Amino acid sequence: MYPANFDYQKAASVDAALKAMADNPELKIIAGGHSLLPAMKLRLAQPPALLDIFNLEELKGIKEDGDFYVVGAMTTHADVMRSHLPLFPEVAGWVGDPMVRNRGTIGGSLAHADPSADYPAAALATGAEFVIRGLGGERTVGADEMFLGMFESAVEAGELLTHIRIPKGITASVYEKYRHPASHYAIVGVAMARHADGQIRAAYTGAAEKAARLPKLEERLNAGQDAGTGLVEGADMLGDRFASAEFRAHLVDVLSDRAAKRLG
Amino acid sequence: MQLQVNGKTRQVQREDELLLWVLRDELGLTGTHYGCGIGICGSCTVLVDGQVTRSCLTPVASVAGKAVTTLEGLARTGRDGAVTLHPVQQAFVENPLQCGWCLPGHVMSAVALLNANPAPTPEQIDDSAGINLCRCGGYNNVRKAVARAAELKRGGL
């Protein structure tokens, strides 16, 4: 497995990366490389040039800012696992395997917007915000506006996802996952968080072309009812050789019920 | 660029290459195997600052200044030239696999596991071994070898 030829350079800073992207629109950002490099070796992607931002210290680590934790986009899954963030450490522990968690980054995963990735459900359940920087300045996108479709996030050409802001005050959270036994991707994952105001937010991943909130489930749980069934009735579910659309819809119900019981 | 490999500083010519090919082709450290090349099989596993890492998916430039450990960096050679295998290597000598292609990855994963957890449960051993694919089905011996390595390590070998 060899990729097509490409140029490689390391970015010296976020600003330098943004300038380089403006100069060369074909430049592709590489973070941990555990989605991009396999895609390049399988020739599903053939970027002519890579810009490596994995080692940028300004994008690593977790800080606090008022009512938010601010997570650098190049913080690895292994570091997220060891952190005191709400929900995300449990979710990070479900990502891939130890090698993926040692190299893969939270920002890389979220910007990539793989419909079977774990973090999008966590971002939706916690109401995370995304700090996206371009040459023209910085903007903040809410979780509900971040995931647009299969492998499509709100990060536009020439922009970089720099930080993820996760609200403090979440009092309880859980993640339930039915994973593919070989790839460890989510066939379905359900994330749930009880917020400071007592309201529960829930979201699923893996089951449709993008991760999404579960409004029917939230409504029931916040009214003190059980999760029940038919949570994604009428929604367009993914069906493939691993799991039919019907089975995925069923898994959303089962995992939501388990998550609600664990959340208490 | 310079690379820290097995405790030595090595000069590396190709900065735009993956770690696996720098180790194998440039530094001649062929103990790190090329299996699938797409981050699935684990036979290219090395340690970067002690963490299991797939060298086939790691640009060499991104590990500059970090400590890379390969299979060749595990055994110790005494002043008299006698080689002492690492406990994990010794344990796999006692509990060998069939073809051995996946073995370097298994050894490196077990080294990282035992550094983090000197007394893993059978479930923790299976979890760790599962990141390295063995097509010969040698997992029974992997399980025995890792448990034996933990024993040898505790015995101070």
TrEMBL record, chain A:
Which InterPro entries does the entry link to? Answer: CO_DH_flav_C, CO_DH_flav_C_dom_sf, Diverse_Substr_Oxidored, FAD-bd_PCMH, FAD-bd_PCMH-like_sf, FAD-bd_PCMH_sub1, FAD-bd_PCMH_sub2, Mopterin_DH_FAD-bd
Q: Could you give a GO molecular-function term held by this entry?
A: oxidoreductase activity
Q: Which residues form the FAD-binding PCMH-type domain?
A: 1-171
Q: Which UniProt keywords apply?
A: FAD, Flavoprotein, Oxidoreductase
Fetch the SUPFAM superfamilies from UniProt.
Answer: CO dehydrogenase flavoprotein C-terminal domain-like, FAD-binding/transporter-associated domain-like
Give the highest taxon in the source lineage.
Bacteria
Q: Does the keyword Transferase apply?
A: no
Protein name, entry field = Carbon monoxide dehydrogenase medium chain
UniProtKB/TrEMBL annotation, chain B:
Q: Does the keyword Disulfide bond apply?
A: no
Q: Which SUPFAM superfamilies match?
A: 2Fe-2S ferredoxin-like, CO dehydrogenase ISP C-domain like
> GO molecular function, one example?
oxidoreductase activity
What is the superkingdom listed in this entry's lineage?
Answer: Bacteria
Pfam families in alphabetical order: Fer2, Fer2_2
Q: Does the keyword field hold Glycosyltransferase?
A: no
Q: Which PROSITE patterns match?
A: 2FE2S_FER_1 (PS00197), 2FE2S_FER_2 (PS51085)
**InterPro entries cross-referenced by the UniProt entry:** 2Fe-2S-bd, 2Fe-2S-bd_dom_sf, 2Fe-2S_ferredoxin-like_sf, 2Fe-2S_ferredoxin-type, 2Fe2S_fd_BS, Beta-grasp_dom_sf, Diverse_Oxidoreductases
Alphabetical UniProt keywords: 2Fe-2S, Iron, Iron-sulfur, Metal-binding, Oxidoreductase
Show where the 2Fe-2S ferredoxin-type domain sits: 1-74
Q: What is this protein called?
A: Isoquinoline 1-oxidoreductase alpha subunit
According to its UniProt entry, this protein's organism is: Deinococcus marmoris
